[in-house]
Specification:
Elements: H1 2-20, E1 31-36, H2 41-55, E2 63-67, H3 83-94, E3 98-101, H4 103-109, E4 121-122, H5 125-132, E5 137-141
Parallel strand pairs: 1-2, 1-5, 2-3, 3-4
Helix pairs in contact: 2-3
Length: about 140
Amino acid sequence: MKNINSIFLATLLVVLASVFSPTYAADPEGGLFINLTTDDARAANKAIMFAHQKVLKRGYKPVAIWLNVRGIHLADKNRTSHAAIQDKLQAFIKDGGMVIACTVCSKASGIAGADFIDGVKMGNTDLVMGLLFDPVVKTLSF
């Protein structure tokens, strides 16, 4: 009986390890839509790093960061306090990522399209909803 219990326990551990171990597709499918609502530097850095280094560079596409609420301030080129974050956003864009500014949030904050760093797209319903409701795109919020 002791032998059967040991075999059962060993089998259970193997099954649990396979269920809970991270797996990555050899050919990544789908993408990521990050909803970034804050201009907090720590949260923004984490969101951008994850989108760029952990998702986009592993081949997942599309990868988009939607700047809304206070997050739109991160891409305002007139805010020099966010220069380091803006450099990261532009590197993300250069590598194929998409940065989208919420049009309503931009207007409410008095930020025009020309005020954003190069490569930022002004959002519209079709663009945002197309990504948000794409069945192969996952959503993550910061």
